[in-house]
Amino acid sequence: MFFPASVASGKKHPASPKGEQKHTMHLVRFTHQGHEKFGLLRQEEVIVLGEGRDLESILHRDMDSWLPDMAHRNLSIPPSIPAGEARLQAPLAHPSKMLFLGLNYADHARETGASLPKEPVLFAKFPNSITGPQGDIQRPPGVAQLDYEAELGVILGRRAHRIPPGRAMDHVLGYTCVNDISARDIQTRDRQWTRGKSADTFCPLGPSIVTRDEIPDPHTLKIQARVNGEVRQDSTTAQMHLKIPEVISTLSQTMTLEPGDLISTGTPAGVGMARRPPAWLRDGDTVEVTIEKIGSLKNRVQGTPEWA
User: Fold this and answer.
1) The pairing of beta strand 146-147 with beta strand 230-236
2) What span, in angstroms and rounded, lies between the C-alpha atoms of 58 and 49?
């Protein structure tokens, strides 16, 4: 089981200068004894806050309406279970939008020979591509050029519609690890990215949503990808070209971002496609994405039959 690199202490944080209470939490979805639950991961236990897919419905509401209450329930110590008894699932199941940025790291642009864009290079994935921090990555039949991309995911907590960059971070709930799995051969044949990026299980997420007050500056985090223990990507989010406030503001000019939406902020250098020779994922490989202060995803590649 994979846990965040640090977990909420459960202690009250000092009030902000405006007198607001800070609510630092690691939100998780998990299964326990055959039942889906959601809660807060804290040290070696999971604080159980609800059953079923309630977390999904909570994330689709504005965080002003539920975050203070959830923090209060955290401090009052509801029922808990040992962390080792919980199997973590992806913290998001059915976001209304999953928006991904291409060519947003300076080192990745250099390795591909591309110029850095002036505006976000955007593509979408769909909820069928989500899998959890321990789920298998299913290689579709005929795909030979399967690739990994370690990314920092941003989860919206407030509706954002035509907002300026200076207010963008007020709309962020928190952060998670993302692996933007890609079928490069499908991308090449299609000459666009949707099908090659949106296959089932092509979006591992997790292990939790770390609320933004635990990560005051998301542009200073170490980010890595390992394949079978070998470091393939080793960079920092400081290499991000378009920063998170600018990205959120730009996207919100043309589409309303809803609570629970995911924005994945691009990948650093070291992807399999750019290596010489290319280093594609094979059946049985294990891919691990780790981001400082958030934790790790670890997923195994598994081939699938041609017909179900």
Assistant:
1) unpaired
2) 11
Given a cut of 50, is residue 169 above it in pLDDT?
yes
Q: Classify burial at 275, counting beta carbons within 10 Å of its beta carbon; exposed 0-12, middle 13-18, buried 19 or more.
A: middle
The answer to whether residues 213 and 13 touch, using CB atoms and an 8 Å cutoff, is yes
Question: So what's the pLDDT on residue 6?
Answer: 38
Could you tell me which residues are beta bridge partners of residue 28?
A: 39
What's the whole-number average pLDDT of the chain? 89
CA 76 to chain centre: 29
Q: From CA 293, how far away is CA 228, in angstroms rounded?
A: 22
Beta strand pairing status for 262-264 and 150-156? antiparallel
pLDDT at 5: 42
Contacts of 279-285 spanning 24+ positions with Cβ under 8 A? 279/227, 279/232, 280/144, 280/145, 280/146, 280/147, 280/184, 281/137, 281/139, 281/146, 281/147, 281/148, 281/227, 282/146, 283/139, 285/227, 285/228
Tokens of 70: 């959830």
Domains of the chain (ranges; CATH) run 26-89 (no CATH), 98-303 (3.90.850.10)
C-alpha dist (Å) from residue 172 to 52, 60, 195: 24, 13, 28
From CA 161, how far away is CA 167, in angstroms rounded? 11
Q: Is 170 helix (H, G, I), strand (E, B) or coil?
A: helix
Question: Per-residue pLDDT tens for 44-76?
Answer: 899 898 887 667 778 888 888 887 777 666 656
State how far the Cα of 32 lies from the Cα of 179, in Å rounded to an integer.
Answer: 25
Torsion sign, CA atoms 11, 259, 96, 235: negative
Confidence of residue 9 (pLDDT cuts 50, 70, 90): very low
